[in-house]
Amino acid sequence: MTARSLNLLVLGRGKTGSIVAEVARERGHRVHCIEAGDNPDGAWLTAERLRDFDAVLDFTEPGAVLTNIEACLDAKKAMVVGTTGWYGEMDRVRSAVKKAGTGFVFGANFSYGVNLFFEIAQAAAPALAHGFSGRITERHHIHKKDAPSGTAVALQRVLEQATGVRLNITSEREGDVTGTHTLELASAGDRIVLTHEAKSRRTFAEGAVLAAEWIIGKTGFYDFKDIIAQL
Ligand SMILES: NC(=O)c1ccc[n+]([C@@H]2O[C@H](COP(=O)([O-])OP(=O)(O)OC[C@H]3O[C@@H](n4cnc5c(N)ncnc54)[C@H](OP(=O)(O)O)[C@@H]3O)[C@@H](O)[C@H]2O)c1
Predict the structure, then answer these.
(1) Nearest to residue 38, comparing CAs of 66, 10, 57?
(2) Residue 143 designated active-site
(3) Which of 153, 154, 198, 148 lies closest to 173 in space, CA to CA?
(4) Residue 68: which of 121, 9, 123 has the closest Cα?
(5) Contact 71/51 with Cβ under 8 angstroms?
(6) pTM confidence score
(7) Is the pLDDT of residue 48 over 70?
(8) What's the mean per-residue pLDDT of the chain?
(9) Do 63 and 41 meet the contact criterion of CB atoms below 8 Å apart?
(10) Cβ-based neighbour number of residue 221 at 10 Å
(11) CA-to-CA distance for 102 and 134, rounded, in angstroms?
């Protein structure tokens, strides 16, 4: 239970959104969930309906998230966006958040472990300047709508920022795999393999709810990995 009980709106009652709602309730928050059928083209998200919510958490799909963001920013609502597959529009969303004067947290992956994995990968990155080649592989369940995963793209960005080298990403879709990411660095003489394996979606849900608690009362556009130390 946190100090203040929040009124949260969760968009998407799928595999992740439903656990986000469960974790938020466990932490003492009031939660309302909206499904795709209630919200075609963001139609549910009027300023009047959104008025009493403290924050909106989006775990929908790449084809819906930008419309949802636009509607929530129009209503000046704080947002936590876990949905991936929209990062090509990042600059436009950042400007819209600034214009709306609201708080916004996005993250390719809300798991503490994945963000630690990014830091470990960054520490290993100098290998790319010492004769090692690298590649990223991501494996997810067959229903995942975007490829490569937002997490793989974020890992690619971490390594590119550290070394200037942009690694290839291979995407594999199999069964009900929650999410596995591997960075492989290989030289002629050895091989380093770093793997993060998500065992349950609860790890994402906990991070998302902590981000919602954190963003209340703040303004600005934040990447989850940059605020995780404050949660
Ligand atoms: N950041 C993270 O840590 C993290 C972790 C896990 C997943 N994700 C991302 O979160 C997103 C959802 O993942 P998931 O595995 O939960 O997918 P999912 O099981 O397919 O759930 C998505 C849900 O969103 C619903 N939806 C679609 N459009 C909507 C709208 N306009 N309003 C309300 N609901 C809508 C879908 O309903 P219908 O099925 O009826 O269309 C579905 O129930 C994906 O982009 C995924 O990559 C992020």
Answers:
(1) 10
(2) no
(3) 148
(4) 9
(5) no
(6) 0.89
(7) yes
(8) 96
(9) no
(10) 17
(11) 39
Residue ranges around ligand 1 (CB below 6 Å)? 11-17, 34-36, 39, 59-61, 64, 68, 82-85, 107-110, 143, 150, 204
| Residues recorded for the chain | 231
Q: Is the pLDDT of residue 106 over 80?
A: yes
Place of tokens 């920013």: 73
- Ligand 1 atom closest to 37 (CA): 40
The radius of gyration of the chain's CA atoms, rounded to the nearest angstrom, is 18
Ligand 1 atom showing the smallest separation from residue 84 Cα: 45
Answer whether 58's CB lies under 8 Å from 68's CB: yes
> CA-based diameter of the chain, in Å?
63
Q: Name 173's Cβ contacts closer than 8 Å, sequence gap at least 6.
A: 139, 140, 141, 142, 144, 147
Point out which residues pair with 103 in neighbouring strands. Answer: 220
Place of tokens 């660095």: 185
Residues in Cβ contact with 148 at an 8 Å cutoff, skipping those fewer than 6 apart:
136, 138, 169, 171
Name 29's Cβ contacts closer than 8 Å, sequence gap at least 6: 2, 5, 6, 7, 8, 209
Among protein residues, the one with the nearest Cα to ligand 1's atom 20 is 14
Beta-strand ranges (E) seen in 155-206 are 168-173, 180-186, 191-197
